[in-house]
């Protein structure tokens, strides 16, 4: 079955996903898009896991592209301390906003 061409919005979202994914890959965390299992009594959701010492983030490829990126953005705080200024500038605005919100929560208020 042939895939339909991506719209300009979807191309932008795909690029965003790949940029965020590269942050994790460069830190030894593999990002995998999979058609996650569903059954009558269960449904596997996107998330992280460790298998034989390797770290993964699985993203359900049936999710809309925007939600796929959102899954990764949710995990950025775990690697936030190792992100360089250059990487930060290259991130989509939505990812930077999330990181700033996490930083604001961790700063004690006098």
Molecular structure report:
A three-stranded mixed beta sheet has the order 1-3-2. It starts with 7 loop residues before the first helix and ends with a helix. β2 (47-51) and β3 (54-60) form a beta hairpin. The protein has one domain (13-103). It has helices at 8-25, 65-75, 85-90, 93-106; strands at residues 29-34, 47-51, 54-60. It contains four helices and three strands, in the order αβββααα. The chain has 110 residues and is an alpha+beta fold. The radius of gyration is 16 Å and the shape is globular.
Name the helix and strand elements from N-terminus to C-terminus, one letter apiece: HEEEHHH
- Poorly predicted ranges: none
The general outline is globular
Briefly note the structural class of the backbone: alpha+beta
| Tally of structural domains | 1
The averaged pLDDT comes out at: 85
DSSP strand count: 3
- Biggest sheet: strands side by side, in what order? 1-3-2
- Summarize the main sheet: 3 strands, mixed
Strand content: 15-25%
Q: Alpha-carbon distance between the termini?
A: 60 Å
| Rg result | 16 Å
Helix content: 40-55%
* SS summary, helix count: 4
């Amino acid at each position: 079955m042939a895939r339909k061409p991506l719209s300009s919005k979807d191309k932008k979202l795909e690029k965003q996903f790949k940029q965020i994914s590269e942050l994790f890959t460069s830190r030894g965390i593999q990002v995998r898009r999979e058609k996650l299992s569903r059954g009558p009594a269960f449904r596997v959701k996107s998330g992280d896991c460790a298998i034989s010492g390797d770290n993964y983030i699985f993203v359900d490829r049936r999710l809309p592209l925007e939600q796929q990126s959102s899954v990764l953005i949710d995990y950025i705080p775990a690697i936030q301390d190792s992100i360089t200024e250059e990487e930060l500038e290259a991130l989509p605005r939505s990812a930077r906003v999330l990181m700033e919100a996490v930083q604001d929560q961790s700063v004690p208020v006098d």
